[in-house]
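Archive record:
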Amino acid sequence: MLCTFLYTSVLVPANPMPLVGRPKIAKTLPKGLPPTSVHALLAAVDSESERRASNWTERDRAVILTSLLAGLRADELLRANVGDLRRRDDGAVIQVRGKGGKDRSIPVELALVEVLEAYLDSRAVRFPATAKGPCPTVSGLAAWPPTAALFVGSDGDRITRGTLQYRVLRAFRRAGIDGDRPRGALVHGLRHTFATELANAGVSVYALMRLLGHESMVTSQRYVTAAGAETRAAAAQNRLYGLLEKPE
């Protein structure tokens, strides 16, 4: 700023700052939530009172579990439609319209589908006019048009970014684990947990890249580095630990 002022005031013949390289700030490693925090988060959602119209246990639980078990970004949750969730013989997949217009399919287990269908059934009770029809034998995914928004707000319209982030933030605060997440990371903190758990389980960097929708393996490698499972296992092989064994 000083050099710009001197240059614009014609006190120096040129501004030297464009020739000076900016220092690169090291990126912090992604941080996932420990299992105890995840349990506390879900317990906080389940204990939420339904007295307020904005409180919706089934939806909030579905949002958080979809983030934890499918690793979706906030924008991907906002754009998701009911028809993007498709059952298969071996489970189900979520078709994701990802960042930069790059689609991907994420395999999910039927347990998550059941959580989403329980939420959709509660939604049919709140907003019966938005489902396909009043037929009592139709429920779950089949009760909704494929183009209907997967997640909606308390008004029945597609959920907004503000509502989505607020509901996740509220769950963190009610669970008493707000300090466990990186600053500013709400839905993305749940995505970090998804990726870190897979990295700890030994999932390859290539598989992580495909599941997370990353353009580069370098980005996905950060989760493997953060997990540190391979590094810890390698360090444990150090034979010098034998020096700590008590003699018989």
User: Anything to note?
Assistant: Strands lie at 85-88, 91-97, 103-108.
